[in-house]
Amino acid sequence: MQKRYDFDIIELVQERKENEFSKIAEIYKYDPDRRCAINKVAPLEKVKYEYDIWVSGLMNWQSEVRENLNIFEEREGMLKFYPLIDVPEEDAWQYIYENELPVHPLKPLGYESIGCKQYTIKGEKRNGRWAQLVKTECGLHQ
Q: Which of 138, 139, 140, 141 is catalytic?
């Protein structure tokens, strides 16, 4: 993606000590919220307030939480912008195919929603994410 679109990519990583704890304690087995907080939310928290606007590709058909989002939201002093929030799923896929955008290589294998390897299984829509758990979001978009 970086080569194809000449993106400036900022790599965010969790604190080494927290990452090691997360792995050694295998917290994915008993505390998925904490695992997401350590590995996803905390690294983003360090930098997100350096920016005025957060642009996200969330779409309202992806989950019940997302279906109630507005195109603009103000959260904790940051403007969140969801330009694709009301794009129907069929239109999104048509655009992807017509413009030959890359698709994750696991999608054709039956993984319709792809997240962390410990919580991703084959499944329709987001049913392959956090299967057998009450969890539906990692917390990045809150």
A: 138
